[in-house]
Amino acid sequence: MFFVWSCDPGNISSSEHRSRPASTKFLLAPLLSLLSFFFSLHLPHFTFKMAFGKLYGLPDNGRTISVLVAAKHNDLDLELVNTQANSTAEFNSSAEYLKINPTGKIPAFEGANGFTLSEVIAIAVYVTSQNEKTTLLGKTKQDYASILRWLSFANTEVLPKLAAWYRPLMGLDAYNKKTTDEAAKTALKALGAFETHLTANTYLVGERITLADIFAASLLTRPFATVLDKTWREANPATTRWYNTIINQDSFKAVVPSPQFAEEVIKYVAPKKEPKPKAAAPAAAAPAEAPAAEAPKAKHPLEALGKPTLILDDWKRKFSNEDIRTVAMPWFWEHFKADEYSLWKVNYKYNNELKLTFMANNLIGGFQTRLEASRKYLFGAQSVYGENYNCVVYGAFMTRGQEWEPAFTVGPDYEGYEFTKLDPSNEADRKLVEDMWAQDVPVTVNGEVKEWTDGHVFK
Ligand SMILES: N[C@@H](CCC(=O)N[C@@H](CS)C(=O)NCC(=O)O)C(=O)O
């Protein structure tokens, strides 16, 4: 929804990327603009504000954060539409999203007036410049050009190099020690430019905070949480002092309330996997690299079950297009057949080892990516509940057939999960399925309520 009822200007509302059909949107956009004009007149105790636009991205993604903070700084409402950092994901590769960002990546912007923009630097500058009096773009043409210089440097020279270091350690990309160590060296060299500059200057450009500072600090949130550890921070006091200054600004705290600092560089942990008796596969005896997604060579075992009466794609469409609680779930229970499908609680076995919530969410993303070969037979949702250093990964799936193994053993991660069969005739089990799929209520673990933080739907 574009509309934000707000007594507190500057709200950033968030929603899932389940939008109404394009044709309806087309008709609604001008109507909404008109309404916003009328309602921009403030009533004594109440303001009816319309978001300036939608930002497609993720709350823990540095590029997304940079735009949200710039918007917040200028009291501009943006609606965050949670969109995966995966250009091959279903929504990212849909015609609807590719119109907004032809690369399928995040972030992307869609204005309430229909204007669309991709590329984070362009979005950040556009959003910032909406406030005619903003100080974030500097005072002079030289300031402005210098700001662009830092935006470009951070976005193309620093972030990709750092990402080539922390992503493999986080299990997001294939890990190879030599390559990762080399990426660390290149990243640290690029970061050196910040330390040199900030040793002699308080901010990146001029004497006050600009978009350059907000942008660069946002892009460094994940590096600080994963690889720029205590030792690095001690060796780079100027960058660390500057980073602390920026993340403690109200506008930054409103978007990222508690940025994390790694004590030590995170360690690569190979996926948990018990050795398999089948000795036929390791022909290549490769190093510790995990293939991103394995394509099925042989027929999927569940194909033998034939065509069910509940067509999974029909359900997935309902789930994607309708309100989950009021329309999709009643439809689901009406059409679900316990002899065709089974329902499973799928909880992570090592919840006590989870640290940062965004890493837990990446764990879910990796698990689901490697279930690709079973997409025709599987539906479900998994979420992270709780906070950093106190979170759990819970979920629920429906699979064709009565066993979990055929659908889940197509990827290597299943050994990290506990599968518990649910009974669709049992009230509590039905509620669990609905809560996990709607992703809109907290869970209670050992008497402690943990709020929903993030998650992925496998559809
Ligand atoms: N040049 C783009 C790069 C955007 C980008 O790489 N986004 C990442 C997340 S930070 C992404 O969506 N990656 C998904 C993919 O590569 O599939 C920009 O500056 O906005």
TrEMBL record:
Entry superkingdom: Eukaryota
The name this protein goes by in its record: Elongation factor 1-gamma
Lineage of the organism: Eukaryota, Fungi, Dikarya, Ascomycota, Pezizomycotina
Domain spans labelled GST N-terminal: 51-135
Protein's UniProt keywords contain Transmembrane: yes
UniProt domain EF-1-gamma C-terminal: residue ranges: 298-459
Region (Disordered): 279-298
UniProt family annotation: Belongs to the GST superfamily.
Family matches, as Pfam families: EF1G, GST_C, GST_N
